[in-house]
Amino acid sequence: MKLSTKGRYAVMAMVDLARHAQAKPVSLSDIATRQEISLSYLEQLFARLRRAGLVKSVRGPGGGYRLARGSAETRVSEIILAVDEPIKATRCTEMGATGCRADRSKCLTHDLWEELGNQIHTFLSSVSLLDVLERRLASRIAEAPAAAANNDSSMAAAS
Amino acid sequence: MKLSTKGRYAVMAMVDLARHAQAKPVSLSDIATRQEISLSYLEQLFARLRRAGLVKSVRGPGGGYRLARGSAETRVSEIILAVDEPIKATRCTEMGATGCRADRSKCLTHDLWEELGNQIHTFLSSVSLLDVLERRLASRIAEAPAAAANNDSSMAAAS
DNA sequence: CTAAACCCGAGCTACGTAGTCGGTTTTTCC
DNA sequence: GGAAAAACCGACTACGTAGCTCGGGTTTAG
Predict the structure, then answer these.
(1) Touching check for A97 and chain B: CB below 8 Å?
(2) Is B60 a domain residue?
(3) Are B54 and B82 in contact (CB under 8 A)?
(4) A53, part of any domain
(5) Over the range B79-89, which residues count as b (16 or more CB within 10 Å of their CB) and which as e?
């Protein structure tokens, strides 16, 4: 799961789309001005979102985009996966399975990154567009039991 | 929390260091050959790790590095924060607080990224070097209750 | 038939990662 | 004391790619 500004832009746009969903479809230029994202860049993002089946397009004047499903059925993880294609993750996966298993010690961290990926995906899968709109971001996740003593709090989302 | 290969290299090196911790300190060239990371690059990483107080150096022949604390007391999150300085996250933070609060609709996703950052940090804080060494990566985190229906499983760690 | 929208892909640019290089300083051991 | 092993330092660079622009289509309402 890649976490870039591209994915963030896509989510911003989709939230905007969900917010302004009405009878009429929403045009990209509306989203562009509201969210301050360039129109042509948005077009690229929505091309991918459409191919992924997350939105439907209506062409011609008065056209625009609609959510393919409801805002409660569209999860953030889907949006990010649609625009940021997955790419390779841990060094050993590039080496094609064998190299990794051959020298165990080299890939001690392998499980760690995989598990981290799972965590991120699980979280983002648990959040729908509607959740974001209504600011329902309950820490769905139980606090880690031990070890969470000090908080070097300088947090920031990944880029 | 930035998730780059730099951070991964640092964690790999620190796990290697924890694994080979003995009476003698571990030299970077040993780590370099075992983990296939260039020596000079490792030097840069360990300079930061040292400044962050995660390792101690011993100079001169037979010198090298030691963990400043035990492997059970060193958390993965600390390593990543030490080498990948935090950087800006959510666009509105760059705009300096006011801009964000002024137009609420623009920052609907703000809470989402912040919460995601918390999730990642919480997870990585819950894992110590010893945990990685012994492959104790229990899904410390409760499965998300609803919504986790489909698994579009193409996962990969962030880059 | 015109204009509003979507659609498409080629191309550009600035930035950060990942890495090199050449050197200095400390310290051990012969 | 001198050689050698290590940490230390900082400047420099190549390269990928994220992020964005441009210039054209194509569809369709009015």
Answers:
(1) no
(2) yes
(3) yes
(4) yes
(5) bbbbbbeeeeb
Residue B28: which domain range?
Answer: 5-87+127-133
Dmax (CA) of chain B = 60
Backbone angles phi, psi at A64, to 5 degrees: 150, -150
Strand residues in B12-153 grouped as ranges (E)? 55-58, 64-67
Residue B36 sits in a domain whose CATH number is: 1.10.10.10
Q: Is B138 on the interface with A (CB under 8 A)?
A: no
Note whether residue A62 is domain-resident.
yes
What H or E segment, with its residue span, contains residue A93?
helix A91-94
Residue type at B135? Answer: R
- Report the domain count for chain B: 1
Kindly determine whether the C-beta of residue B158 is less than 7 Å away from any atom of nucleic acid strand D: no
Per-residue pLDDT of chain A (159 residues; tens, 9 = 90+): 778 888 999 999 999 999 998 888 999 999 999 888 899 999 999 999 999 999 999 999 999 999 999 999 999 999 999 998 765 555 554 443 334 444 554 467 888 888 888 888 899 999 999 999 888 876 554 433 333 333 333 333 333
pLDDT at B90: 53
A107 located within any domain? no
8 Å CB contact between B104 and A135: no
**Strand D positions within 7 A of protein Cβ atoms:** 4-11, 18-23, 26-30
**How does the average pLDDT of chain B come out, rounded?**
77
